[in-house]
């Protein structure tokens, strides 16, 4: 799997394997199965999935299916690329239907456990937390039940991304942009109001945090993309394509998911060389009118007062406007909030609880 590189790597390329810290080790119990998934390639997906399904069936002869999934899950927390390949394998009917679809049920229960323990995971290892987000996002993009994506995963994924925004490290912002590119359109169709709230938070981070140029570009792109209901105008597409190298703009609207049942026709990780002509499409009408309409629009260039050069004046010259503004705070200082003020309120974890759903017992 090749990834394009340039002087300024695109912010959508975030799923890179981070080196493990010295002294850390992880030895998977089912190493042969892990190796099969690690060797999953673009041109051999179909045959490799058959081998993976057979290896899982062999493994559960002497072990429980839960042990097998737990081992694969632990490997995914250590390696985000493995997590992507695991999601691809588990989205294939030959794999998720193993043991009367119990494999799919156990996988989703494992993801739910990660979500419920997200605070502890983040505290224990930011690296593993990011990989847990990646795994959930990849499963949400690919796994279907009766031909439909699992909309119940939209809320948990969005709450994951809010935690990444709160941290605002460059790697966190990059992962947020990648997940919005992959799944934002589906979240918009399922939870438009929640996505709007998320975008407003992204604006706050962009204004009030000390971010790198790469992170600022990523957030601005997310804001424009969601505000346009995932149908960017051609000029904006061209702008971001020129300004941000290796931007995986072809992945907007989850284009990688459209053919998820035909993995051999698409790369596991898209590159910037793919055609972007299929990005713009007419968005579905939202049940929430005026997405982002409550925000104030910036004044147009036509209405702005032209800047006049400052005249050279003597010592006795009086600035008529000086006294009027003398007591005002410097521009941008009065209303600016600190990071602590913005994030001091406790996150409402009950806003979109990934609770028990009877459909799980019925459909899985």
UniProtKB/TrEMBL annotation:
Basic and acidic residues bias (residue ranges): 354-364
A GO CC term assigned to this protein in UniProt: cytosol
GO molecular function: translation activator activity
An annotated GO BP: regulation of translational initiation
Gene3D superfamilies reported for this sequence: 1.25.40.180
SUPFAM superfamilies noted in UniProt: ARM repeat (SSF48371)
Listed Polar residues bias regions: 271-285, 341-351
Name used for this protein in its record: CBP80/20-dependent translation initiation factor
Sequence segments annotated as region (Disordered): 253-364
Organism: Nasonia vitripennis (Parasitic wasp)
């Amino acid at each position: 799997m090749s990834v394009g590189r340039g002087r300024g790597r695109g912010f959508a390329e975030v799923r890179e394997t981070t080196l493990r810290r010295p002294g850390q080790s992880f030895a998977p119990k089912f190493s042969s199965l892990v190796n099969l998934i690690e060797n999953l390639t673009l041109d051999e997906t179909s045959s490799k999935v058959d081998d993976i399904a057979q290896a899982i069936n062999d493994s559960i002869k002497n072990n429980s299916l839960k042990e097998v999934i737990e081992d694969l899950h632990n490997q995914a927390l250590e390696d985000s690329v493995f997590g992507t390949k695991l999601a691809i394998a588990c989205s294939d009917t030959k794999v998720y239907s193993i043991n009367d679809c119990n494999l799919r049920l156990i996988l989703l229960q494992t993801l739910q456990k990660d979500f419920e323990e997200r605070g502890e995971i983040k505290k224990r290892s930011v690296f593993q937390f990011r990989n847990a987000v990646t795994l959930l996002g990849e499963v949400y993009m690919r796994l279907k039940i009766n031909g439909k994506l699992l909309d119940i995963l939209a809320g948990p994924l969005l709450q994951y991304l809010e935690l990444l925004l709160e941290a605002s490290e460059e790697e966190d912002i990059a992962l947020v942009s990648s997940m919005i590119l992959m799944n934002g359109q589906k979240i918009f169709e399922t939870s438009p109001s929640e996505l709007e709230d998320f975008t407003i938070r992204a604006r706050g981070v962009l204004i009030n945090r000390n971010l790198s140029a790469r992170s600022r570009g990523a957030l601005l792109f997310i804001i424009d993309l969601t505000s346009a209901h995932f149908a960017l105008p051609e000029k904006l597409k061209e702008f971001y394509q020129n300004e941000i190298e290796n931007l995986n703009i072809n992945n907007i609207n989850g284009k990688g998911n459209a053919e998820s049942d035909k993995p051999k026709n698409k790369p596991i990780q898209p590159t910037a060389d793919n055609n972007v002509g299929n990005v713009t499409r007419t968005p579905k009408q939202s049940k929430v009118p005026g997405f982002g309409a409550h925000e104030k629009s910036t004044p147009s260039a036509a209405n702005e007062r032209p800047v006049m050069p400052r005249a050279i004046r003597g010592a006795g010259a009086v600035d008529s406007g000086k006294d009027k503004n003398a007591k005002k705070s410097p521009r941008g200082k009065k209303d600016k909030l600190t990071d602590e003020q913005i994030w001091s309120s406790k996150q409402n974890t009950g806003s979109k609880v990934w609770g028990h759903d009877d459909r799980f017992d019925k459909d899985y």
